[in-house]
């Protein structure tokens, strides 16, 4: 009578279960349609906002203040 280690039996069961799970995931991946990605061309994209509006306003205010001093 041969003795089988409980660790061997448990490992074999886990490997078989993992193989079955991977096989089922592979089947699902083959059946599902591929993902589609939309690309927005730059011509149709909304215009970018100006990030430099505050420094211009500050510079204009300084110019006005200097002209008032003179």
Taking all Cα atoms into account, the compactness measure Rg is 34 Å
Number of helices: 2
Strand content: under 5%
Mean pLDDT: 81
CA(first)-CA(last) distance: 111 Å
The helix content is 55-70%
From N to C, what is the helix and strand string? Answer: HH
- Helix/strand class: mainly alpha
Low-confidence runs (pLDDT<50, min 5 residues)?
none
Sheet with most strands = none
**Shape category:** elongated
Q: Please count the beta strands (DSSP E, at least 2 residues each).
A: 0
List its salient traits.
elongated, mainly alpha, single chain, 70 residues, 2 helices
List the helices and strands and how they pair.
Elements: H1 6-31, H2 53-69
Report on the structure:
By secondary structure, the protein is mainly alpha-helical. Helix content is 61%, strand content 0%. It contains 2 helices and no strands. It has helices spanning 6-31, 53-69. The longest helix is centred in the N-terminal third of the chain and has 26 residues, at 6-31. The model has no long low-confidence stretch (mean pLDDT 81).
Summarize the structure.
This protein is mainly alpha-helical and 70 residues long. The chain is built from 2 helices and no strands.
